[in-house]
Amino acid sequence: MSEECSIPALTPRSEDGLQFVAYGDCCISPPEPGRGHEQHLEAVHAVLHRLRPKPDFVCFLGDMIWGLTREHGPNFAADALRAEWQRVLDGAMKPLVDMDVPVYRIAGNHDTFNAVSERVWREVFADLPRNGPSGQEGLSYFVRRGDLLIVALDVYATAMGAPTTIFGGRVDYRWVDEVLAENRDARFKLVLGHTPVFPINGYKARIWNMSPEFGEPFWEVLVRHGVDAYLCSHVIAFDAQVHRNVLQITTGGAGTNAGPGGCMPAPVEYHHLVQLALDDGEVRAQVLDMEGCCRERFTWPPEQEKTHGWRFRADEIGEQPARLLLAGRMPGETFDRVRISLDGWQPRLHVALESAGDTYPQIYPQVWTGPRVPADEPLDLTVVVYPDLGPGGVLARLGDGPFSSLQSDSAEGYTAVEWPEEWEEGEEIEVTFL
Prior knowledge:
Elements: E1 7-8, E2 18-23, H1 37-50, E3 51-52, E4 57-60, H2 78-90, H3 94-97, E5 103-105, H4 115-124, E6 141-145, E7 148-152, H5 173-182, E8 188-192, H6 212-224, E9 229-232, E10 238-243, E11 246-251, E12 272-279, E13 282-289, E14 294-300, E15 308-314, E16 322-329, E17 338-343, E18 348-353, E19 366-372, E20 379-385, E21 394-398, E22 404-405, E23 422-425, E24 430-433
Parallel strand pairs: 1-3, 2-4, 4-5, 7-8, 8-9, 9-11
Antiparallel strand pairs: 2-12, 6-7, 10-11, 12-13, 13-14, 15-20, 15-24, 16-17, 16-23, 17-18, 18-19, 20-21, 21-22
Helix pairs in contact: 2-4, 5-6
């Protein structure tokens, strides 16, 4: 390949850092013609092969095959599944094999969905470690490679009692806790699972996420052990969020159009892969579309010069239905471009951001909601806007605790060209501009 066609990969800042690619959800060979899954994946793989230098390893995050019957029901025909896997691995997925780098793969809901498909998965990927929890051998596993620990999870394992995606993803978080504890000396820790723990783009139903009965204690484990990132797919989109300083990166753009409306949503989302660089305490990522163009890029922790932030302090906020913390607008404008408030008798953080430039909003403001704040305790709250992180780029923390992304149903982040020049501070609120 000529150097003119190559794509510069993000590389570690240190010699012992790592750089890799993550992607998922191609769902090869759907029964309906014309979906274009194979063509999309071919374009994504062409981008993968243009990266220079090539990645140290690749993470494929599930849903490699279609897996279902023509009627979109569970397939109980083992021979048909074996043939489908063989066809896909020898065909559409061969460019991944040809990369000649380690590949860490997990199953998605199209890959394993009953005991038959799990048995076929174990046969097809007989090289995967059998060190998972009881009943999940060959489905969930971990790999230690020098300073790197990868914990790979099948979040729809039948051993966890979830017969369909409607019940939400499930994980043996006690086993994950044990693995992370045994490998506490690993400098880089990545956990792979098919479903997001935290909703993205407004897709809040359990069918798109991990069941909270499992997801909440699972995230506690990741936070306690200082995991660098949880990588997932399932939702046909790219998204990055931070929860208690741990990244959730969703990359479901490997080729499928099987989500509601294709991408989730189209046309905002697009087919892609994510290329990442890992250093001690830092993750950098670029999102490359089917043409190899970088559509999104972020660093965590963020570059301070790319953020806008405020720290709010007060002795007590008291009980009232709404309390303004800060509002900002441009001269001559009536409507706030930035409005940060505590709303409700049990106050909850609200951040409303508006990009309109005249006296009436061109679009409704985007709204992010955050944690409840005790009304009868001193207030110490920090809000940061980091546009590079997209919808996950509105973050908050209480005191000096960890940052978490606020919740939003938007598929796009805040992309204001200019920030307010006039600010109104809430009564009896001490505001520090960061």
